Amino acid sequence: MSEKQLYTIVEGGSITAPKGFTSGGLHCGLKKTERNDLAAILCEVPATAAAVYTTNVFQAAPLKVTRESLADGTLQAVIVNSGNANACTGDRGEADAYEMRAATARQLGVNELDVAVASTGVIGELLKMDCVRSGIAALPEKLEGGASGAEEFSQAILTTDLVKKESCVKVSVGGTEVIIAGAAKGSGMIHPNMATMLGFMTTDVVIDGEDLLNLLRSATNTTFNMITVDGDTSTNDMLIAMASGLAGNEKLTRLHPDWEAFAAAFTHVCRSLAMAIARDGEGATKLIEVQVSGAVHEDAAAAIAKTVVGSSLVKSAIFGADANWGRIIAAVGRAGVPVSPERVDIQLGEIEVLRGSRPVAFDEEKALHYLQKSDTVLITVTLADGSGSATAWGCDLTYDYVRINAAYRT
């Protein structure tokens, strides 16, 4: 049975689709525009929860607070703001993150240690806490279980993103329908080494915290950790998963016959969100997918795939529709893993450009047309060193990326 036959994609599904979840968002004044900048997810019961975090040594205050809340493996609510990262803000920033947690707990009527805090935006500026306080006070009336609340939430977490990122699937566990959903934001400072800039997953499955955490880490490694936009890892990266248990299925464990199906469905949601982030990279016009096979092992394949997709020269060539395979093989060679340099094949889509590390005559006009007209450019690298394979995603590097980031604060 193929992976896609193990679960069903729910078109239009959102983070409120699993049983027990509501969400919402509003504009409280952190952003200069009238776009939403404060949001929350609420579960009607304490949920089994897990998270992964940025590996950047400068970690924003909300991460410390969230780690503390997740110490017992449960969460009931998440409060999120955009427009300000609350990073590198010292004791004041930490106090503000704790205040956000406490205020959210009071307004939503939940235990303070069951609230996670997440922030994204400009680094090094203090939060406008008067705006945050009034926003949190107004949030309970905004929380809904339908599409409207999910839409407001998804819009509230965006910064330079052009589009919201959502994914939802359903899968059977012991004959019971279980739903998995996710929402994420990310467009710049994307080279996660853990997750995305901010990601949130909900499910109604009955599962233990340890199994949920292990699954989250495993799925992250092959999805969110395989995307790059600009090579920068944020101070605020965080991915949170919450399981309400309200589907009522028999407890899912790694020994359950439906574990494979659930894991595939869970990974699909992560992969969909990760690809959406890569496609929405700041200034991007194309999604780039790099498939590597024949490496000495999977870690080597992953290193090569991510090096190729993250190469500024490769990204620039794709933007310029230049079939310059030399930039690709150069990236393969500097990935820091063993490669037989005389046995590398490269394709752009279905166009073979390199065989056995030697140039292949190809139709330049056909290649130009492929690179100009394709929304997704596929680069295939085939090695002859083993059975390791991996896929990474990124985007082209355009003039607009510089324009956006040259004036990010102003």
UniProtKB/TrEMBL annotation:
Localisation: Cytoplasm
Catalytic activity: N(2)-acetyl-L-ornithine + L-glutamate = N-acetyl-L-glutamate + L-ornithine; L-glutamate + acetyl-CoA = N-acetyl-L-glutamate + CoA + H(+)
Active site: 196
Domain of life assignment: Bacteria
Chief place of localization: cytoplasm
Record bears the keyword Magnesium: no
EC number: 2.3.1.35, 2.3.1.1
MF-aspect GO terms: L-glutamate N-acetyltransferase activity, acting on acetyl-L-ornithine as donor
Keywords attached to this entry: Acyltransferase, Amino-acid biosynthesis, Arginine biosynthesis, Autocatalytic cleavage, Cytoplasm, Multifunctional enzyme, Transferase
CDD domains: OAT
UniProt site (Cleavage): 195-196
Function as written in the Swiss-Prot or TrEMBL entry: Catalyzes two activities which are involved in the cyclic version of arginine biosynthesis: the synthesis of N-acetylglutamate from glutamate and acetyl-CoA as the acetyl donor, and of ornithine by transacetylation between N(2)-acetylornithine and glutamate.
Subunit structure: Heterotetramer of two alpha and two beta chains.
UniProt name for this protein: Arginine biosynthesis bifunctional protein ArgJ
Organism: Paenibacillus tritici
